[in-house]
Amino acid sequence: MSEVKKMDIPIPLINYVNLIRNKKSPYYEIVKYLLQDMKMHYKRAGQVPEVIYTINPRQLQKEIEDKIKSEKLTTINICRTILALLYGSNLRHEEDFYVTTSSRGRRNYHIRITQQTLMSLSRFI
Length: 125
Prior knowledge:
By secondary structure, the chain is an alpha+beta fold.
């Protein structure tokens, strides 16, 4: 497994990468949930070589609040965990994933799911 160069990751996200790798709650559980959901969506698509998977952090928070009990489960921490997963997996911004912002400043994360990106994401944890 290739090690992620810390210089490639924005400074605030390095802490989140370490929290995920050390399996700290709730960060690790968020990543596990996302990976399982991505794999399920990719399998449902069948023979399609690429699926765009969109993550809305607020909706994700509502979905996993019952499963993961933690005061650290905030929208901001979810956003940073998602970015740490993407950068820590060596996915390329604008090629493998991109971020859109609504007029009110809310962000959505879009990931191009292929067999290769799924393997990169799975190797991260």
